[in-house]
Amino acid sequence: MESKIKALIFDVGGVLFLPKDDKKEKHLLSSFGEACLLLRDFDIDTSNVQKILFNIYKQSSRGDISKEKTLNLMSKELGISPRKLEESFLKVYKDNTLENDELYNHILELKKKGYKIGILSTQFHLSKDVLIPEKYYKNFDALEISCDDKLRKPDEESFKLILKRLNVNPEESIFVDDKQENLDSAGDLGMKTIIFKNNNQFFSDLEELGIK
User: Fold this and answer.
1) What is the CATH number of domain 7-20+99-208?
2) Model pTM score
3) Within its chain, how far is the Cα of 85 from the centroid?
4) Mean pLDDT for the chain?
């Protein structure tokens, strides 16, 4: 390898998965509120869904409650069956997301060159089912998913955990995210960071750090 960097760690929503409608903001996929506004299958005012469900979402994304309890609590609030609720959320994420294949394939090439690759992502149980496919568990060296590990960005403990799982020091890693607050937290630990705007910009910034 041409630099002392040993590992690259990636966010998912807005990085590895993007909105199918490229006119929408990239952070759509990591915004629970935006997901709620897309729940058009429900015969309710979707503008109020975020307010009604946000506290449950926070508990779920922190891993404080299970997927089953997440569904049961949301079902009680909305008067909709857990099965219907799960189907609707899954449809929202499947219908409005697109995997960033170009980036994913590039990441796998970096792994072949000897770099460790990891994922650090804030997900609640219903978004995780779509945005963290099984192949990520197979092909990435380590993952830290908030609803599984009870740690959410920008908590520095979430960064420490993924670094521990990858067995690298902060200064030996690069963290890639589309939100500045998360990059700031990673930078405070000594990690190098790249804000993700699009693939071409990311590849260029990565090359400036000596990684091709």
Assistant:
1) 3.40.50.1000
2) 0.90
3) 21
4) 89
